[in-house]
Amino acid sequence: MGTLVTLHLPPDSPVADLPWIITIGALDDEEEWAPLVCGPYERPHALALAQAVVADEDLMAVVEPLLPLAELGAIRDEIALARAGNDPGLDAEDVTADDAPRRTTPGRPPTRAEVRAGFGRIAARLAAGG
């Protein structure tokens, strides 16, 4: 069984509505191959697909939001935040010393039709600027 890593979000987090990507790589340092990055997906689809991939294989899947940044200044701002160690999706009070990894139960993997419908919803949100 592999490992799934993702952000723990409060129920009303606007980050949940962003497009999400999955990065799948080797769980063992001895295995050398380039990680696979796929998406974008809606968050529930990304979680379910990643969970299905790591369920029976020794792989690591990281599910994270994709920031649809349309301007160079916004990209540089996010780089500055990353370098400073800040996560715009979390408030300081959301992170505590006793935060432990949480198991997630994302449900069944989505069908191809469900994923493609999710692509359409993501494209519509991006085109609308949201």
SSE arrangement:
Layout: E1 3-6, E2 20-26, E3 36-41, H1 43-55, E4 59-65, H2 72-84, H3 112-127
Parallel strand pairs: 1-4
Antiparallel strand pairs: 2-3, 2-4
Strand order of the largest sheet: 1-4-2-3
How does the overall form come out from the CA principal axes?
Answer: globular
The N- to C-terminal Cα distance equals 36 Å
Major sheet attributes: 4 strands, mixed
- The residue fraction in helices comes out at 25-40%
Overall pLDDT, averaged?
84
Total of helices: 3
Would you count the extended β strands for me?
4
Rounded to an integer, what's the Rg over CA atoms?
A: 16 Å
Helix and strand run: EEEHEHH
List keywords for this structure.
alpha+beta; 4 strands; 130 residues; globular; 4-stranded mixed sheet
